[in-house]
Amino acid sequence: MSGRLGRTRRASSRPSPGREGSTPHGGKEPGGPRRPSRQAVRSLLGVRTVAGQVLLLQIVVAVLLIAAAVIGLAIQARYDGEQDAQHRSLAAAESFADAPGTVAALTSPDPTAALQPSVVKAQRGSGVDFISVMTPNGVRVADNDPTLIGRRAVDVEPAARGTTITEIFEGHPNDAARAVVPVTDARGSVVGMVAAGVGIENVGAAVNRHLPVILGSAGAALALAVGSSALVSRRLRRQTHGLGPTEMTRMYEHHDAVLHAAREGVLIIGDDGRLTLANDEARRLLDLPPDAEGRPVTGLGLDRNAAELLASGRAVTDEVVLAGDRLLALNTRPTAPYGGASGTVVTLRDTTELRALSGVAEVARERLKLLYEAGVRIGTTLDVVRTAEELSEVAVPGFADFVTVELLDPVLRGEEPTGLHTEMRRTAVSGIREDHPLQPVGDLIRFGVSMTPMAAALESGHAVLEPDLNVADGWRAQDPEGAGRALAYGIHSLVTVPLQARGVVLGMANFWRSERPERFEEEDLAFAEELAARAAVAIDNARRFTREHTMAVTLQRSLLPRTLPEQGALEIAYRYLPAQAGVGGDWFDVIPLPGARVALVVGDVVGHGLHAAATMGRLRTAVHNFSALDLPPDEILGHLDELVTRIDQEEGGDGSEDLITGATCLYAIYDPVSGRCSVATAGHFAPTVVLPDGTVECPEVPVYPPLGLGGLPIETAELHLPEGSRLVLYTDGLVEHRERDMETGLRLLRDTLAGHPERTPEETCQAVFSAMLPPHRRDDIALLVARTHLLDRDRVADWDVPADPAAVARVRAACGRQLEQWGLEEVGFTTELMLSELITNAIRYGSEPIHVRLLYERCLICEVSDGSSTSPHLRRAATTDEGGRGLFLVSQFAERWGTRYTPTGKVMWTEQAPTGGRRPPAELLLDDAAW
To answer: Which residue numbers delimit the GAF domain (predicted)?
Structure first.
């Protein structure tokens, strides 16, 4: 290992294996192919045939490529071996440097004695050729070659500064791949170095072991290349029949025969504009004279445009020119880039028949395109009139100059057409101009004359052609004056076709031509019928939708309140708009309750159509029935929830999908005496309150799940509303739609309501709809605005009544005095009589506390409350009965009467008109007229 004392070369400075070589290029000599002599061909390595020459060239190229590949692989193997040796050396050096005890041994008094056995053992076990341990100044203290101990190593200064070295060592007597690793103590100071390496001769031996495989692969590749070249040469020999260059040149000399036999005309025109060559087909197509070659093309009797194009030398592609009665497609290209004298090569094709066929194909393509547009553009809406307009628009100007569409009046109303088809309503007119003489939209078109093409089309059920209206006597007989104006305008041709769907005639479509000179032909009838059939299906669908929509709207409007009931507690305004695509299940209601109270109801049934409208009617009826019991809002919604659940169970048992689940409802009761409003909601938006100063509040109302889901108790929220407050109830269609989310809609509603205390409920409705109405309503919208009023305290009188029959007279007298103050002496007697009966019943059958209250609003209201929950009932009193006639008298004198329950008992109430006297008693119900 004495060679380790010599020079080194860094691994990074080694050149990369392999170099790019140059590739020979060949090409043709300018001036076109030359005809080589037989002697020159044979001089090419003595090979006569083209196939043999190709084989020889392929073998030479393969040998060169394989040799280059072998050299490259050998260099790469050498490089990889050196890299592997450096990596092994580095691993061995780092392992020894990091081994426990290395640092301690280097700092001991005798490092050689401590490290020499370990170095010898490590060198044998690591697979490297040498391991050496050095001091920081490069002096070896241990080495697997003991003769080197004490000698200084060269080029190890970077390692002494703490940098690991990996390099190719070059020196006498052997080169090596060496790695030098610094050994540092705990403080990071270099206390020594460890070097390890592999001799280059061992690396070369590893490379030599790969040479047989490389050479064997090269031989196999050469054999494969020779074999493939032989196959290619054999195939080429078979295709060329063993011809040499001379024989192939002879074949080139026969190009004239092929040129003149072609079915495409070929001309060669020099740069001086003279005809150089013309094959037989070109002579025939252009009708050239025999002496045409050599003459200027402008003097050959050709069409001027064709002659100018040929003489211009311009490069064109498939340009059509006229030559006699033929249409020729010309292609011209310059000859200069391809050798030979400069000039122009012209090819000619006869496209006369092709043009005729392509014209027919173009018409068919345009018709198919128009039918596709009709499928896309007709029927975009479910409106009968708009669908007819789309039919008239899609055919102009691609098929006709003007189109008119007439429909039967029942079709326009959405009804099934029946009866005769002699009268139709013009529904749509479209044309290329606005000043047409045709009857306008809305006119009634009559087909009274059987000779008209319209009548013939209706009778046959197929399109009828009237190619020349100037001689169409039947068409002119229907309306001579109108026909005269149309002919004077220039309308000259007509196709009329009935609009039929399911075998039922819906209307007529008429296609007119005026400015287009071509008349309609028989081929146009099939297209007109196809176009009309597609439109008829769309019109029939729109008609059916119109009918169903009209039925649903009629049902819905019949179920909604037509007028608001009279009451004085609230000033109410409302808005209701059905969805544009169909009706839904939104509803609202205002229900007067006893005691001058008013119930406000807003609800929503999910879905659209007849089922939603019918469901809304059922729920509204149920709400009215439950309101008649005078229950609090939470109990009414609880009963309504049970009803919906029961209906869903009954209707869902037969597999029906038309369930009510998804309905929501808000029920509120306003009392003008106390100014309090009780609100409960089931899945519905809470009300919005606008205070008298314009401030908007959104009160917290406990929300119950939608009706039919059940399971949770419904709670009632109590709101105190100052007089002049506005209570705003609405459905989700107002605040939420496809273009706006719910949070944005609620924020916009609050902003619209805020800051305008002077608005009336009607003005509030108008402002909300102006700001929030969506452009396309996909859901119903219900809005209810109620401004509160308080009953004047002078119109309220009440008394506590002790449980003593003697107290009845005192209360009766006080009641009479109060009625005199209100100016109600006319009803004083009947009121005192009813109060006497009600108070007596409360004392006799009820319990304390007993209270009497009179309210004078639109009517006179008498209320007697007690702590008992027992409700009296009207019954027939027998002759021998001592009682049983008091409630009968109350029912006869009061316009309305009833009982409502409170958390502490019940209230018996009556209502009387301020004037009108008493009703005569029904004596047939009495067995004894005595009271």
So the answer is: 383-549
